[in-house]
Design brief:
Elements: E1 8-10, E2 21-25, E3 31-35, H1 44-52, E4 69-71, E5 82-88, H2 96-105, H3 115-126, E6 131-140, E7 143-153, H4 157-161, E8 164-166, E9 178-179, H5 184-196, E10 204-211, H6 215-227, E11 231-243, H7 253-267, E12 272-276, H8 280-292, H9 295-299, H10 307-322, E13 326-333, E14 336-346, E15 349-357, H11 366-381, E16 386-388, E17 404-414, H12 421-434, H13 438-448
Parallel strand pairs: 8-10, 15-16
Antiparallel strand pairs: 1-3, 1-11, 2-3, 4-5, 5-6, 6-7, 7-8, 7-9, 10-17, 11-16, 11-17, 12-13, 13-14, 14-15
């Protein structure tokens, strides 16, 4: 059984423990410490304290039953002119315009934290009172400007032990919030201050799937270092990304030769063509049917098997396509579609969101053939600086096409200097390492905001 690695703890004014430590440099140039002593494990008193820390409970959600927004008192950073507002998922659509504008100004884009995806996900997947939106507004001469947006999961007993948690539905692959590129550190500090104040009183914030070499992680680490907060990272891994430039596409000559042979064999069955769909709605329905015909349909995990997920995807794709931020490519043999790929983008960042293929043509590698064509087209266009594969670690297909890697990890961030974030992360990692029981796995993925 694979053992989960011990949590990584960013050095943010940690006292020097008597036990041995190993230091290294994080990809975002932040000195890190890996605790090797038993002190990293949660003590009884700490666990008792953690269990009584509450995040967003159902009692807190009572003020959202009318779908309204709730102001959280005085600004956390009066010197920065920031105002904090908490909205229910049902009221998030009222700020769709400012939210979309923030997505274009974010220090690190995240299509899965923007309004095009999050609003339908909140309304259809999360339910009316289970997710809220923490908004940070800055007063400008032209009117209030949204500078931070964090979807928050309202946890019960388990999540309360881990503080507040960024909500990341299973359709998404990143969990960092949108933060304005103008003075991101002040906005992040105000966000953490707001979470430790009433009504949350959260000791920490869990952020799933955060790019560790990106500007958001660097800004977060700078805030933690300056304010004495602690950050622990766990489930750290790398996944494939495509960066602009001639070195973006990495494929061995032998593999390329084999794909060429398969392509020629495929052409014997009929004319082969790759088309970038002009009718997004029609292409999306074709993609959904194609996915349902394969192994995902057999396992019951295809979009067509989940009405809510399908509705979210359909609205998201339609909304992104309306302002030119979505493409669907189809690989056809004659009139028959045998592979489809869905790519979305925002502010120079792209996401290779979904791919599906007809398993009757599996011996020709139609998914790889299409991914190769789409990759070449993206590199030729040159308008995206990076494309996230949205794939799991060690993916058998995309890892052989894309050379670059992006480190991602789940972060536990203390909202105050004395928050036991190392104990929290260590508790989760050690529970998984010691036990293969379904309960432990469920706890881990629930903290991450996933449902498997």
């Amino acid at each position: 059984m694979n053992r989960s690695p011990p949590p990584r703890v960013l050095r943010t004014h940690l006292p020097s423990p008597p036990a041995r430590q190993v230091a290294w440099t994080d990809p975002c140039d932040v000195p890190c410490i890996r605790r090797l002593s038993p002190e990293a494990a949660p003590k009884r008193n700490n666990l008792h304290q953690m269990w009584n820390m509450r995040a967003l409970t159902r009692r807190d959600a009572a003020c959202f039953q009318d779908g309204s927004a709730h102001a959280m008192g005085l600004p956390s950073r009066p010197d920065a002119g920031l105002r904090i507002e908490l909205r229910s998922g049902a009221a998030a659509r009222d700020v769709a315009g400012p939210w979309a504008d923030l997505a274009r100004r974010a220090v690190e884009p995240n299509i899965f934290a923007g309004s095009d995806f999050m609003i339908p996900a909140m309304e259809r997947i999360a339910g009316r009172s289970k997710v809220s939106l923490l908004c940070l507004w800055r007063g400008d001469p032209g009117g209030p400007r949204l500078v931070g947006a964090l979807p928050l999961a309202q946890g019960g007993r388990l999540i309360s032990a881990f503080g507040a948690r960024s909500w990341r539905p299973s359709l998404s692959s990143l969990g960092h919030p949108l933060i304005d590129a103008d003075d991101p550190e002040s906005t992040i500090e105000a966000l953490l201050d707001a979470l430790r104040a009433p009504p949350h009183r959260a000791s920490s914030l869990v952020l799933p799937q955060v790019p560790m070499d990106g500007p958001f992680a660097r800004a977060l680490a700078a805030v933690a270092d300056r304010t004495g907060r602690r950050i622990a990272a766990y489930d750290r891994h790398e996944r494939a990304v495509l960066r602009s430039g001639p070195a973006g596409l990495s494929i061995r000559k032998r593999t390329l030769k084999e794909l060429g042979r398969q392509r020629r064999r495929l052409e014997e069955a009929g004319p082969v063509a790759v088309e970038r769909a002009s009718d997004i709605d029609g292409a999306f329905e074709t993609f959904v049917a194609l996915e349902a015909s394969g192994w995902k349909g057999a396992r019951g995990t295809a979009l067509a098997m989940n009405a809510d997920a399908l509705s979210v995807m359909r609205e998201t794709v339609r909304g992104l396509a309306a302002h030119g931020s979505c493409r669907i490519d189809l690989l056809r043999v004659g009139p028959r579609c045998i592979a489809g790929a869905l790519v979305v983008w925002n502010a120079g960042h792209g996401w290779f969101w979904k791919v599906a293929y007809d398993e009757a043509f599996a011996r020709y590698s139609p998914g790889v053939q299409l991914a190769l064509e789409v990759t070449r087209d993206i590199l030729a266009a040159g308008d995206l600086t990076i494309v996230d594969s949205c794939a799991v670690r060690d993916h058998p297909m995309i890892d052989h096409l894309w050379h670059d890697r992006m480190p991602v990890a789940d972060l536990v961030v203390g909202t105050r200097p004395d928050a036991p974030v190392a104990a929290l992360a260590s508790h989760v990692a050690q529970t998984l390492a010691r036990s293969g029981r379904a309960a432990a796995k469920k706890a881990y993925h629930l903290v991450k905001g996933e449902r498997r």
